[in-house]
Each structure stands twice: as structure tokens, then as C-alpha cells.
What we know:
Strand order of the largest sheet: 5-2-1-6-7-8
Shape: globular
Helix content: 40-55%
Radius of gyration: 18 Å
Largest sheet: 6 strands, parallel
Strand content: 15-25%
Bound molecules: ketopantoate
Number of strands: 11
Oligomer: single chain
Structural class: alpha/beta
Number of helices: 12
Amino acid sequence: xxxxxxxxxxxxxxxxxLLAAILSRATATTLVTRGRxxxxxxxxxxxxxxxxxxxxxxxxxxxxxxPPPGACIVVAVKAYDLDLTLALLAPQLDPTHEVVLLQNxxxxxxxxxxxxxRPVTRGITFIAAERLxxxxxxxxxxGKTYFPAASAITGLWHRAGLPAEPVHNVDVYxxxxxxxxxxxNPLSALLGVENGALAGLVDTARGLVxxxxxxxxxxxxxLDADETLExxxxxxxxxxxxxxxxxxxxxxxxxxxxxxxxxxxxARGMAHGVATPRHRLLADLVRFVARDPRPAVQEAR
Length: 301
Ligand code: KPL
């Protein structure tokens, strides 16, 4: 049996730390990260997981990106950091590397290919995780990750015990995940609540899903509105204890992925002449709150 490809995870946030911890069980894995997370991991030599699969996982953290030949590069930074990150990675990449992108948002694969000038693997993950402290992550939901059928990375996920499925239509999964993020992320960020608290907002979710389904249709992707709404409501339930990544960003005073989620739906809708007033309103409100996150979040608590 051939040895599995080594993995380099880029980004020390919740998803990056979690994947570095779990993939280390399956293959030689390094985590490229800087700042406080890098210091903590160098001192402790391990990521701490709480919740699912709780425990301490030895992880090799590095500041420099110097991937071994044949490595699978799992880019786990936020969508808003993608342009700078990919520009930094580009000079070290060679044709033996597979670059895997797991960000929330619409059009991530095309954006990355444009920057790197080479093919990439777009993955869609339903993992829910939350960063508690640098190097400490709560693993809240072990959702599946979908990869293009042509990629060997599904095998690595399985080897590490993570659910994954190869699919022929990753675009459809990007829209499905987008529906979940476009409902849960802005509402949880604006209201300052964990995902499960949105369970009662069914009509609000339906309105957002209907707009998204119209934009997707104009873009050539057919989604069923009822089925998509069901998936959004199921995700609210399954990730009920999670604080969405957008709420975590707002609370930490970071940028948010709003331009890649609701903002991207508005932009794609405009290109096709499809009105998206609900997504536009949420995008405007999140941009407003993210400028000074504290008051709005505290009032809602
Ligand atoms: O992807 C997520 C996120 O927070 O970004 C969900 C699935 C909504 C979990 O919180």
C-alpha cells in the first residue's frame, strides 16, 4: 500500500486547528500558522479538542510554508484572508501539490484559480467548530465534507475517521452550504445567539432561501426551495450549540465573510437581474455591526 500524501493545513483558526489535529492521526501533517496560536502550539505541541473527539492531539506547527513534494495543502483560512494567503503560498507550490479550499462562500474555487493560475480542489465542509482559545477548539458537529470525485482527498478524510463523500457536482453543494451560511451566520451574528436559538425563525429562513434559490436557478443550479429550507433548519438543529463563525468574527472584532455569503448572493442576483432585498438587508446590517461589533451584540444577549 502506498503511504498517504502528507498534509499541510494552512490557518490556525477553529477549522485549521481541528483538521490538523485529526488528520495527524492519518498522515504526516503540519499546521502553518502565526501569532498567538503558533506560540501556544510550539509550547504545548498539541491542539486541545473539546466536545466531539475530545483530547490532546500532537500537532507540528510552523510559521513557514515549505510543503514536501506531493503534499495536499488544505487551506483553512477565512474567505476574507484568501487573496493574501494564496499570494503568499503561490511561490512554494509545484505541480505535485493538490490545493484544497474549504472556505464558506460562493465562487471560492474560481477566485483561488485566478490567483494561483492553476487548478484547485473545492471542498464543502459541514464541520462545525469553535475556537475557545488559541489552539483550543470545541468540535460541535462532525458534518460531512464533499470533495470532487477526481480528488484522492476523500480517502485521507476517511482514514482520519472524518465523514466525507466524493461528488460529481460540488457546485450544487456550494450553493447548499451557502443557503445554510446565508441564514445562520448573519442572523446569529446580528442577534448574538448560538445557532440553535434561530430555530423559531422559520419564515425568515424561508424568505432568504427563496431568494437564494432564484439566484441559483439563474446561475444554472436547480435547488428545491422546500428541501433547501429543510436542510437549513436541520443544520440549525445539528449545530445548535455552535456559535457561528460570523458571530465569532464579530465578537473578536475581525472582518466577516459577509461579502462571500449574503453579499455574494446580492452581487450574483444583480448580475442576473434577480432582486434579493432580504440578503441585501442582512449584508448591510452585518457590515454596520462589524464596524463596531460590541454594542449590537451586547444588547441582544
Ligand atoms: O459553517 C458554519 C459557520 O458557522 O460558518 C455553520 C455550519 C453555520 C456552523 O456554525
